Amino acid sequence: MTVTQDLSILSLIAEASLLVQLVMALLAGLSLVSWYWIFRKAFQIRAARTRTLEFERDFWSGGDLNALYQSATASRHHAGGMERIFEAGYREYTKLRAKSHDHDAIIEGSRRAMRATYQREVDDLEAHLAFLASVGSVSPYIGLLGTVWGIMNSFRGLSNMTSATLSHVAPGIAEALVATAIGLFAAIPAVVAYNRFAHDIDRIGIRFESFMEEFSNILQRQLR
């Protein structure tokens, strides 16, 4: 009489050894946390892109810089990165202009203020990207550890049998391979998201840098 073994995913997980189950639980936890940050970063980057476009439209519409500065100051907590860069640069510009007549020092001080704000904005956008990169690079190896351990247990169990068939080996190998599958399930979305977000943040950063140069030129012309 042939006994049919249940090789469903849930049964394989339930019947796996303790170490393999711990590996699977760790990978599942990493996957959930990475998906949380994937959605958070996607919304954050989308919002940053939208606010950048809105501020660029307002800035290049030819409005008064003082009025734009007052608007940026009033909505500081809801402003985008480019708007905060503009606010920092123009605030330093007006402060130095009232104290000094050295045009180069005024422009340099404004650029330093914008550069410091730029770095904070980019750091905020890049926050937790390192976690996604780590999940993408480490998860397959964690899954492989569970797979190797499960296969070792499977073959160790065969040492007590006089004759081994595929039905004896298959469940142990299958439950071990589930750990690799879960590792890949955690790693692939994290790697794809990391590459996409890094590309988007680089593009936003380039727009910030271009704005700082163009705004510095505008301030320099105002000093003449």
TrEMBL record:
Organism: Pseudothauera lacus
Membrane-spanning intervals of the chain: 18-39, 129-152, 172-194
UniProt-annotated location(s): Cell inner membrane; Cell membrane
Keyword field contains Cell membrane: yes
Membrane topology: Multi-pass membrane protein
Record bears the keyword ATP-binding: no
Family: Belongs to the ExbB/TolQ family.
Protein name: Tol-Pal system protein TolQ
GO cellular component labels: plasma membrane
Protein task: Part of the Tol-Pal system, which plays a role in outer membrane invagination during cell division and is important for maintaining outer membrane integrity.
Subunit details: The Tol-Pal system is composed of five core proteins: the inner membrane proteins TolA, TolQ and TolR, the periplasmic protein TolB and the outer membrane protein Pal. They form a network linking the inner and outer membranes and the peptidoglycan layer.
GO biological process entries: bacteriocin transport; cell division; protein import
Keyword tags: Cell cycle, Cell division, Cell inner membrane, Cell membrane, Membrane, Transmembrane, Transmembrane helix
MotA/TolQ/ExbB proton channel domain span: 82-209
